[in-house]
Amino acid sequence: MRQHNAPGTTAPPATGPPHDCQAPAGFTPEPGRNCWCVEPCQRFAMLVDADAYFRALREALPRAEHTIFILGWDIDSRMELVPQGAQDGLPAGLRDFLCALADQRPELRIYILSWDYAMVMAMEREWLPSASAHWQAHRHLSFRLDGNHPPGASHHQKVVVIDNKLAFVGGLDLTLRRWDDNCHAPGAPLRVAEGKPYPPFHDVQCALDGPAAAALGTLCAARWLRASGSQPRPVAATSSDPWPPGLAPELTDVRVAIARTMPMCEDEPGVSEIRMLLRDAIASARHSIYMENQYFSSREIANALEARLGHEEGPDIVLVSRRNESGWLEAHSMGVLRARLYRRLRAADTQERFCLYCPSIPGLMPECVNVHSKVTVIDDDLITIGSSNLSNRSLGLDTECNIVVVSGGDPRVQAAIAAMRARLLGEHLDVAPETFQAEVAATRSVLAAIRKLQRSDGRSLEAYEPPLPDDVDAASPAANLLDPIEPIDSDQVLAEFVSHEARPRVLGRVGMMVALALLLAGLAFAWRHTPLREWADFRALLSVVEQLDEMPLAPLAMMGVYLAGAVTMLPVTLLILVTVVIFGPLYGAALALCGTVLSTGAGYLAGRLLGRNAVRRFGGRRLNRVSHQLGKHGVVAMVVLRLVPIAPFALVNLVIGASRISLRDCLLGTALGMLPGIVVAACLVNRVAAAARDPGLVTFALLALVLLVPASLLLVLRRRRRRRSEGAAARPQDDPPGPRGRLARLAALRRQA
């Protein structure tokens, strides 16, 4: 396959249809609204795929003299920028490479800021203890995990700034499973991480310098201050030019805009510049809208595109994305949202001006090219490259950063934007950029050029209609839960899945758990400091109980007890505690999780055999209403139900079996929902047993630390309930809750002012 990745490839601008007098006005950057700032840039280059970006970065970093900022969603110390071998005499791994640079230049300071990720991402990342140890290898290298964000949010900016003179911005993190060249060949030998191959990966980054890079350095310094509480060292003036000598720019002497997304966090207002940028850009399109993106789930973006499809002389719309989502959970969330929006746009497309494409490479199925890029090109007048997906969370909840180049009618900039679009589509269609440009000039349409150059016997773009089975569509929650645009509210989640009457008294349950833990701790303390020790030898009793795990077939016998509990209504909490005491915290927790899932499966099958009518008679009104919610929302509702139980475990299992939820969703939701409680129980039992065996300051301190978890949760829940009660009392009866209510109150205050 041909390589089409040479930076700086240019071609004459595409010849478009004449501008009619009814055409929309062009896009105008407005700092404070659709961008943060507009700054001069001496050089601008687009880097397609990680091979090009990582090579340029490897070439630029050794030229740093004073400061390097690295921001990312995921940063792995083990990744290699140039897996083929850099031939520069420096170590291959990222951490060792950066430490070697710090050794060479004593004045150099390196600041690395990565998202303090959610535990659901743990299996895809470098383990936290390993990362902390690895990144503390040099005193001039500072590493932080940034958890300063609202619930459910993430830090998604991917920025590298060198000496405030050169910056890289885009969709690529410095981590594993990102490297690929633009051939995306099936079975490429270098596309391996941790000994396992991974599918082709397509992404886009840009490089820029000048005052625009300095502005991005300011952004990085502000992020570092918020995350660490310490001000990074001010960047001093340097004499060197860190721009990679081998990187030819697409543009020189151009002004670029920087747009951000930042959620509301504590006292800081939210920033939605990218949201407004995309809305304004789509509204300004006259001939073509070209988008490459990992996700397409934003209803607001779909509304803007649908409005353009409604115009008789509106633009063609081309969206390039990946065929398959990463895993079952993503397919049933972001995949469902994409399919819903696709159906809407197809229904609105009466003139065949919209098409969703996926890259097609022979021999790759059932895998697909993971289109991870975040690029939008409007006519020949605007290109934006950054970290923001076409998703709700990228427009309001996560931190994002995009770079925008606007032509302003300058033919030189228009030609460069058209050439960059041609490079992207030339790669996907496996044609030279000049060939694509010529076809656009001949057909006077980007979409028509794609259709003309498509082929079925080789690498190409394939029109794709995302599947959306009716049962999956009906079972998936609304977009505001699968892809939130605002911080996640636990009360909103409960309201979505469980009716008001079915909500348990959470505070009372947590309070009882804390009281029980304190009672156990008190007993352990009394054992050490009162005559209670003389009444019974508790440590000997523990020793006898713990020897039970050495009995033959003890784990199988324990599973039998869980099955019996499914029929006899034996409290599952008691079974979990007994399992952990007998088999220890690690093995016992694993067995307890298996036992609860096994018991759930048995109860589910029993409920399915009994039938809905029989179960409804003794399930009660609360459980029957929850059964309806389970049928609608599947695995997510199961997780909520297990985290916040509303009835005996065995009875709930029967009702679940009689509901419309699938066995797979039932078992998966049970495992995810029960795991946190089992882990807490294992830690608690382990610490109580340790305090009994070896009473002392350290063991009691660790026990107190374990007790702080439920106690802290209780305090947080009480504070939230008190605040909501006060807010409900102060809110007028006709003032709706949520974002609309807040907007209405703000409008009323402005009118009063």
Automatic annotation (TrEMBL):
Swiss-Prot/TrEMBL GO biological process terms: phospholipid catabolic process
Composition bias type Low complexity, residue spans: 1-13
One MF term in the entry's GO annotations: phospholipase D activity
Domain PLD phosphodiesterase: 151-178, 372-394
Transmembrane segments: 506-527, 561-583, 590-610, 630-655, 667-690, 696-717
InterPro entries: PLD-like_dom, PLipase_D/transphosphatidylase, PLipase_D_fam, VTT_dom
Disordered: region residues: 1-25
SMART domains (alphabetical): PLDc (SM00155)
Gene3D superfamilies for the chain: Endonuclease Chain A (3.30.870.10)
PROSITE patterns linked to this entry: PLD
The reaction(s) this protein catalyses: a 1,2-diacyl-sn-glycero-3-phosphocholine + H2O = a 1,2-diacyl-sn-glycero-3-phosphate + choline + H(+)
Keywords: Hydrolase, Lipid metabolism, Membrane, Repeat, Transmembrane, Transmembrane helix
Pfam families hit by this protein: PLDc, PLDc_2, VTT_dom
Family annotation (PANTHER family): PHOSPHOLIPASE, PHOSPHOLIPASE D
Protein name in the entry: PLD phosphodiesterase domain-containing protein
Source species: Cupriavidus necator (Alcaligenes eutrophus)
